[in-house]
Amino acid sequence: MLSDRNDTTTKFVIRKQLREQETETETKMADSLLLETRITQQKQYESKPFPAVISPPSSSIPIPALSLPLFTQSIKNQKPYLDSLLHGSGAVLFRGFPVNSAEGFNDVVEAFGFDEFPYVGGAAPRSSVVGRVFTANESPPDQKIPFHHEMAQVPEFPSKLFFYCEVEPKCGGETPIVLSHVVYERMKDKHPEFVQRLEEHGLLYVRVLGEDDDPSSPIGRGWKSTFLTQDKNLAEQRAANLGMKLEWTEDGAKTVMGPIPAIKYDESRNRKVWFNSMVAAYTGWEDKRNDPTKAVTFGDGKPLPADIVHDCLKILEEECVAVPWQRGDVLLIDNWAVLHSRRPFDPPRRVLASLCK
Q1: 3-state class of 309 per DSSP?
Q2: Where are the CATH 3.60.130.10 domain residues in the chain?
Q3: Which residue has the higher pLDDT, 31 or 122?
Q4: With 80 as the cut, is the pLDDT of residue 287 above it?
Q5: Number of Cβ atoms within 10 Å of the Cβ of 77
Q6: Under a CB-based contact definition with an 8 Å cutoff, are residues 338 and 162 in contact?
Q7: pLDDT digits (tens, 9 = 90+) for 313-328
Q8: Minimal CA–CA distance to 68: which of 35, 33, 97?
Q9: DSSP annotation of 321
Q10: Rounded to whole angstroms, how far apart are CA atoms 73 and 143?
Q11: Which end of the chain has fewer CB atoms at under 10 Å, N or C?
Q12: What is the CATH topology of the domain spanning 180-318?
């Protein structure tokens, strides 16, 4: 009997030691999984790469051990480091990790611990997929989506965005990104009087919405999905909460937002940023209901000079970084620091998104 008890105790101790060793090994692997790497499309600003790129160290992590749970645990373990990296670079691309589905992407988003941001007041047509994940702008593939800060046309906007490539495009379809403070500095140097007017008056955004979504339009979100209700009274209440004027039309609604600041001050980085959707609205808010040249004006209602708007677009294109999507890529963007866009593409392409406070 005594021998049996000793054997049982010994086996228990051995199993416990093995579990502890496995846990210790997993922790070490998780802590060494995130490695800063370089890709050809990166740019350097103030000695920092843009975007930062994180990949697994291929030599030290055996392929069978590279799992989604290990990746999400690595994120949790190294959250302060990742926060610092995002703050310094403005965007972080995670490449080479086993994120193989929308559910896996949702797990990655959850691992960061950011609060979810509800998509109320945005213009892009989107569909919910799973958890905190929805489709990116579902406008037709031949259409370009111009540069913008996410939901810059409303007072409340997400501070961070995630994008995930579930199906990489056959051709094109990049999500170009550009540092907002760089755009501000270049515009201020080249068009100081225009920038001064923007800082004084802000911008006014006008959009005409149908009742239901129009997938043929890059701004085709109907009023029901824009305000997440079919009740007009509730829609009016939610519009008012955003500081938005809502006027009902025969077959939809007209929204007027502003004046709203076009230049914001990023307190965490002590610099001004080009925080607006001016170029996006002026060059891209076009469909059967909307005239883009009337979609955005100075805050006092005066029209914007077309030549300066298009010059701003030129600056955005010159300063941007466009990394071709690969399946499994996860791109984290600081919405305070970075504008983004979408290039036309040849299908198939499926990029998912998640917004965070």
Answers
A1: helix
A2: 25-143+151-175+325-356, 180-318
A3: 31
A4: yes
A5: 16
A6: no
A7: 999 999 999 999 999 9
A8: 97
A9: B
A10: 38
A11: N
A12: Double-stranded beta-helix (3.60.130)
- Sign of the dihedral through C-alpha 330, 114, 128, 161: negative
**For 55, left (φ over 0), alpha (ψ -120 to 50), or beta?**
beta
23 band by pLDDT with thresholds 50, 70 and 90? very low
Cα separations (Å) of 65 from 29, 56, 77? 9, 11, 17
Instruction: Determine the length of the chain.
Output: 357
Residue 356 structure tokens: 């965070």
CB 205 within 8 Å of CB 260: yes
Tokens of 23: 């846990």
Parallel, antiparallel, or unpaired for β 91-94 and 52-55? Answer: parallel
Q: What residue type is assigned to position 311 of the chain?
A: D
Q: State the pLDDT confidence band at 309, using cuts at 50, 70 and 90.
A: very high
Which region among 30-39, 47-56, 161-170 has the lowest average model confidence (pLDDT)? Answer: 30-39
- Could you tell me which CATH class the domain 25-143+151-175+325-356 is placed in? alpha beta
Residue 194 is which amino acid?
F
Tokens of 167: 């199906």
Residue type, 153: Q
Phi, psi of 291 (to 5 degrees): -105, 115
SS3 string, 109-167, reads: HHHHCCCECCCCCCCCCCCEEECCEEECCCCCCCCCEEEECCCCCCCCCCCEEEEEEEE
- Name the β-bridge partners of 204: 297
> Over 70: is that where the pLDDT of 26 sits?
no
